[in-house]
Amino acid sequence: MCIGLRSKSFFDVLGVEPAVGRMFSASEENSGEPVAVVSYGYWQSRLGESENLAGQSVRVGDRAYSVIGVAPLGHELPLGTELWVPRQPAAENRTAHNWRVVETASIRTADVEAGIG
């Protein structure tokens, strides 16, 4: 199963509206609540196209996610994604993953400003 970690704004920016249910909220994203949006194909094949999502869940490893929404037909970013769960902002800010990009950009900018690059 392909799982996407996404912020609430991911769906907002793309203008993605759920086919059924709703997308996750900022409070669910910040709290780490175990909720999920499933792909249209997953909903059809595994949830029997039920529009009543109450009580529906998806288990990933040892964690169960409550299904709160279904992405519209054709929305599978990245391609083949069947499940989207909220990305927790606090977790992504604990790493220095993006610092290398900032450092590289700063060096290139400094080189250009100095007439070296």
Secondary structure elements and their pairing?
Elements: E1 2-6, H1 8-14, E2 20-21, H2 26-31, E3 35-38, H3 40-46, E4 57-60, E5 63-70, E6 81-86, H4 89-92, H5 99-113
Parallel strand pairs: 1-6, 3-5
Antiparallel strand pairs: 2-5, 3-6, 4-5
Keywords:
single chain; 117 residues; 2 domains; 5 helices
Q: What does this protein structure show overall?
A:
The structure is a single chain. The chain is α/β, with parallel strands linked by helices. The chain contains 5 helices and 6 strands. Strands 1, 2, 3, 4, 5 and 6 form a 6-stranded mixed β-sheet that branches.
Brief sketch in words of this structure:
Helices cover 33% and strands 25% of the residues. It has 5 helices and 6 strands; from the N terminus they run βαβαβαβββαα. The protein starts with a strand and ends with a helix.
Largest sheet: 6 strands, mixed
* Number of strand segments: 6
Distance between the termini: 45 Å
**How many individual helices?**
5
Overall structural class, as computed from helix and strand content, comes to alpha/beta
List the domain count as a whole number: 2
Return the average pLDDT rounded to an integer.
Answer: 79
Helix content range of the residues, please?
25-40%
Shape: globular
Nearest-angstrom radius of gyration?
18 Å
- How much of the sequence is in beta strands? 15-25%
**SSE series:** EHEHEHEEEHH
| Sequence stretches where pLDDT stays below 50 over 5 or more residues | 96-114
